[in-house]
Amino acid sequence: MRSRIVLVALLSVLVATVASASEGAHSKPRGRRGRHATTNAAAADAGAPTSATTELSGFARDMLAAHDAARAAVSPAPRTPLPAMTWDPSLATLAQAWADRCPNGHRPNNAHGENMYFSSEATAGAREAVTAWVSEAAHYDYASGRCVRDGEANWAYCGHHTQVVWRDTTRVGCGIRTDCRGRFPTVVVCNYEVGGNVNATDTTIPRPY
Q1: pTM of the model
Q2: What pLDDT, in 10s, does the model give residues 27-48?
Q3: Measured between alpha carbons, how far is residue 73 from residues 25, 105, 135, 203, 205 in Å?
Q4: Of 82, 103, 124, 132, which one is least surrounded by beta carbons within 10 A?
Q5: In whole angstroms, how far apart are CA 31 and each of 64, 111, 112, 113, 160?
């Protein structure tokens, strides 16, 4: 049976492979303050002003919708709903520039939160990326903040999920490329402000909300 998911997460130079398959994600450390878990035409014009002031590309709309749906469906439910995300053109430009390089890891010295997703499917996009990221909720214990998968504790196993649902994160901008060479032609990059996963340790991430 064809494998479906490959997850790759970085902690400095640490790379954790979740499964051999067509989809994967990277989450980036951002110092001790926080750890972050072709240009496709839809992403190329993603540098437009925020969603409140202009019509966005389909890619941008899909990204916002997927993030907002994930934030609305968090469990346990927060006492007050998580704020909706807005599209940030400067973050989108930054993310697109990195995706255009077909990277195999995170942008060094990035001051923003960052999630990455890789897929062997050229048709993969915003929904597939966010679905992969939020699937990590299964490895996160909200009460203790521990990230555990198959008995092993590592913050990288749930850092994408916690970044997506980090309450204080309200702006996102993403880029995509679908013609990279190698096993994973599709690369999706999202940058966040403010970056989430603040004060994460090697095995835990504080409650995101």
Answers
A1: 0.79
A2: 543 433 355 452 233 333 333 3
A3: 21, 29, 12, 24, 19
A4: 103
A5: 26, 9, 11, 11, 16
